[in-house]
Amino acid sequence: MKFLAYHGVSPQETIVGNDFTVDVAYAFSAEKAIASDDLQHTVNYAEVFDLVKKEMAQPSRLLEHVAGRILRAIKEACPQLTSLEVRVSKHHPPLGGEVDAASVSISEQWLV
C-alpha cells in the first residue's frame, strides 16, 4: 500500500510529507473460506486497507509507533488471525545521503 503521509522527527517532514509503503502479512485458518467462497469467512483486505489508511493519516514521529498502531488496529478488527506482520517504509528519508528507504517491521504470532 502506498501513501503520502506526514511522519517524521524533523518539522519539515510533518509539513512536506513523504512517500510511504506499508506491507501487511497475516495468517489464519482459511478452511471455511476455501469451502464456502464467502467473504464473511476470510479477512477482507479492503477493510485492512481502510484500517491502514486511517492510521497512516495520523502523523507520528516514529515509524515504530505507526507500525504498532497499524498492528493493533488490524489485530483488534480481525480476531481470526494467528500471526500478523506490518512493515512501514519511508522512501528517500532526509538523511543527507542517497537512501532508498528506511523500514520498520513489527510482527506477532499467537496461539489460538
Provide a concise account of the structure shown.
It contains four helices and four strands, in the order βαβαααββ. It is α+β, with helices and mostly antiparallel strands and 112 residues long.
Folded structure, characterized:
The structure is a single chain. The chain has 112 residues and is an alpha+beta fold. Helices cover 35% and strands 31% of the residues. The chain is built from 4 helices and 4 strands, in the order βαβαααββ. The protein has helices at 11-16, 31-36, 45-56, 63-77, and strands at residues 2-5, 18-28, 81-91, 101-109. α3 (45-56) packs antiparallel against α4. The model has no long low-confidence stretch (mean pLDDT 95).
Give the secondary structure arrangement, pairings included.
Layout: E1 2-5, H1 11-16, E2 18-28, H2 31-36, H3 45-56, H4 63-77, E3 81-91, E4 101-109
Antiparallel strand pairs: 1-2, 2-3, 3-4
